[in-house]
Input
Amino acid sequence: MNALPLVRALREPASAATLDVPGWNALIAMARAERLIGTLAFRLADQPLPPAMQPILADARIDAERESRQALWEADRAAEAIKPLGLPLLLLKGTAYAAAGLKAGEGRFIGDLDILVPRASMPAVERSLLDAGWEWVKSDPYDDAYYRQWMHELPPLIHSSRDRMIDVHHTILPLTARQRPDAEAIMAEAVPITGQLSMLSAEDRICHAAAHLLADGDLAGGLRNLWDIHCLLKDVDAEGLEERARRHGLLPHVRQARRLAEALYGAGARLTPWDRLVRARLLARDGWGRETHKLLRFGFYLRSHWLRMPPAMLARHLWTKWRKGHRPA
Amino acid sequence: MRHSLFLKIGPATFRIGSAWRQPLDHLKTLYADYPAADGGITDFTVRLEPSAFLRRWVRPSIFITGDHGLADAAPMSLDHGLLAAEMGMNLQMALGWRRHLLLHASSVEKDGRALVMTGESGSGKSTLAAQLGERGWRLMGDEFALLDLLTGELLPFPRLVSLKNGAIGVLAAEAPSARLGPLLTGTAKGDICHLVPRADAIVRMGERARPSMLLFPRFGHEAAVRPVGQGEVFMRLTQASTNYVALGEPGFAALTRFVQAVPSHALDFRSGEEAIDMVERLWAMRE
Output
């Protein structure tokens, strides 16, 4: 079994009517494991449901509302902290979708607060956040140095009393990645949400989501990220998106993301063999919420490191981490 | 998963999957008199998985997880499989339940009125509730008390009572051995033995009660009763609740009402008999 029932229920909520009891139990477990239960609850809101499903989805909606409220409050606090710098708070991902009321934000699980600031402003932003009560999560000097030299973000900060994390980015991909998105252009074309908050342009939102899904990371949580892309695609025209993706060097990734979003959540698309492998990885989840296809998952885990670093650097990094006792999950 | 079982406890339903047969066989025996939840949509999935590939067969070791889990949960020996399954269900309730304010407390009922007891592990709240449950009270639960957000009523969650160390002998002297599970020795909390609640507690597990008294028992101290101020009660109950923050404003409103309506006492005691006397006296004196 794979996560297709979840994908089908999101794509076509009316299809849920055909589920039997084991089917519903599998759907809930998959949706929770993929952190899509809130989104599913919104999608199924107007469907006739078995009575036992109502409270389960109502709980998920309550959780999603709290997520969104908390995320917006966190954004408000961060905006307040950097206000003296004269910068708007440029929101990325979940918090941006929630703040702007985008469809991708409906019921979405929101983890950390992700923001984008000009690289030159990083030290000032870091100081302002530390002054306002955020503190370092990692104390390991190697990790800290690694973040500062090679990543596209500061080491994660956590707020001392609210216990929420903030990731301060200066671009949308690690500096070690092969693609070099144009961070200045991304910031220049940001669009305001409110007086203090702004978000990426419609095209850049997709470029970022596609880069995050396909040029970085091991596709964990990929079904949710792909759902974001599916929703975000409604706000752009194909030509403008292609042009923008080309400028960032992300055209193949954006095209692949579109094919996959169409194939899983839309009307269908022709997939390449490589697309099919990614699709299989995205769907590697069974009706108990367990991860399946361990080998495929491990392959994508290795790939995520390969994408981030040239081979010699990767070898040195893995050796350092291994000595520190880190083992792949 | 290879083996599975459905359980209903109070308002919550569970689907438990296990890589081994043994933990579920124990559950089946001990939950035999609970209403069947087979074939229904369940609120939570619990999984008992091998902690590593070979650990299914070689020195079998259980990783407890499910819809909600803790990445750093310590693996458990298969000999403690029954405990692992119970912990798996508790984990789902603690992390995932949103329909009521969940208090880490035991509760018993008499004449439609509930006595709630909360405190740290080792305070004696669980043992006291189990003993009262054998002596004319209806056991509502030894671990979680569920407070209705709108009506302020208490809902039962009468899972198996988890008796630890000295409490095992105390209850073995009062309850028939047929209601006791296997003795699990050498767990992280010492010896553990599960007790099936009395039949009335199981049959009436859908029956709510109005909370009428809150106690903070403390085992191992000179007998004493002290009033506890509303401010302190409120703070201690926010700490005793796993979903107070998650519920937001409705949780705050429900807890405020509870604290204002329910008289509270701290209760120090050195033995069960002493505590039961004190509880009965306080109960008789309440307005």
